[in-house]
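Example 3.2
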Amino acid sequence: MKFLVIAQNLKVSGASEGIVSRSFLAKLRMAYPESVIDVLYLKNHTSEDHLHLLPVDSIQSHVINLKPPLVIKWLNRISWRLFHISLYDRFVHKSYGSYISKIEHEQYDYVFIRSSGLNHETLLGARNLPILEKAIINFHDPYPFFWYQGSHHALSGVELFRLKTMYKVIQQAKGCTSTAQLMSNDLEFLYGSRKKFHTVPHQFSSAVFDLTDIQKVRLKKKKLTIAYHGSIQFGRKINTLLDVYMALVNENSTIKEETEFVLRLGGGDVNALRDNYKECSNIVILPTLNFSNSAYEQTHSADINVILENGSLYCNILVGKAPFLASLNKPVFCVSPERSELRQIIKDPTLIVNGGDIRDVKAKLKALIEKRLVSIEAVHPFCDYFSDEHFKKKLNEVLFQKSF
């Protein structure tokens, strides 16, 4: 078989989409070792990509200039206000489409189009192009941004125009996938799709990363380390968890003497968090790291890793770090809303808590800390959900279905 993968982010560090897209290529090679895999890589700025580590047959890489002509900037102000149409969006989509249109797609059996960020430029750049007829488009987040849990966007005319534009892409595409079952259900309904949205979860493969950089690693100071590496935006709130942990430190001398909570934070008001918890020496708030250093800390220093899901009531996305943390065989303490994707995947109820229920968080965190202080046995919180076998099964459901 011959595959073409159009990717927007293959960075070795930074946004999680780069990590999971790189891993997707590795797992695609694993699933079909004799296949031909070509990549069209479209990005809008220079980045550290280590493309030589990717197990593909060829890769074309282009940096797209998204600075619009002055006339587009001026006319966009008028079209935005009067007609609820973003001319800048159209400029961006045509910029991506100009590269996609040059691909001789007829030579490929399957085409995957992946995007990055919240604007899904590669998907929208393929609109009205013949390649869409054999393309399987992947949503890593809902689109448009109004439907993203934790966003504060109003349902404007421009957002509705974006909804109509993506509707046309979905109609033209051969198939649609998302990385979470709840999101697949939601997008299928939102766009009134007559074709099934399949779910192919995020993947992680260490083979496509150079993880030798550990210069900025912080070594653990206590017997047990709880760690959170990630952002505190889009509805991800960590205050309840920190308040509970600080209470446990003040109430329990063993927890105070033998544990620490180390946070590597990006996004949100990190300085305010530091100020709130400066009196608790067990809570250490530090800047973010590149993926190599971060992976080392979560693998070798952390005893319990934390996941924050988006939104206060509902989270229909799968966080990108989940497959990486699954590979560590360590406990994952997941702070979630009442309905979420991970609540369907994590079968052990002691590892997932309601972020708005202080009693629930306190009871389960205390029990997990006490358990890990005396036991370091392997834990498989996600069972086989991120296994190679499950990935190939889900991929085959997309590739070999009778009709889309």
